[in-house]
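hey can u check if this looks right to u? its 210 residues, i copy pasted from the old doc so theres a chance i mangled smth
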Amino acid sequence: MKIKKQTIFLILGLLLLAVSGVLFTRRAIPVSSQSQAVALADWIYGSGGNLNVMVTYPEKLETGRKNLITVTYQADKALESVLNDGVVFDLQLDMIKTVVQPQKRMLIPVESGRKTFTWEVEPFTAGYSEADILMALGDKTLSGNYAITTQQQISFNMEITESTAASQGELTIWGFACLGAGLLSLLAAFLLNKKATCEKTKITRKWTKP
């Protein structure tokens, strides 16, 4: 039995739409992560305030990818009262066999409100990695020429796996490509079916004409 072209396009379109749905679903799956929180006391001005810090990091890293370690921080009311005098958040990420961007040590002036800073880390080889984040507060004269005087430290281990799956960007591109191709296939099936219906109507009228 000969399969009609519109049937082929219809089946192909539905399959492509299903594939695009799978790709978008895989893109939406979140990466498992852990969080740790600490508070840095104001030893500079003696305001009695704290800088509340939370570090969020993935449970697993992938080689050849930019994995994100996020630091969220916020000054409490007492610390906010002395921010105009100059308070600097000094933090440093120590990881071996890993490229860290923008740089390992950051000196960030503290402003009021919740702020976020992100490190991008790219490991060289698979295995396990130990990470240490050293944190402290300083005044506006703080210089990166001297080693950090640690007030708080967060340490954690992460498994490093070889990158095999497509990145989220690649999944998005292929998802939209399949979605577009699927919609075009359905449109082709509709137009072919409409054309076949018109031709069938013309033939019927021809044979029924007196």
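The chain has two domains: 5-26+167-208, 31-161.
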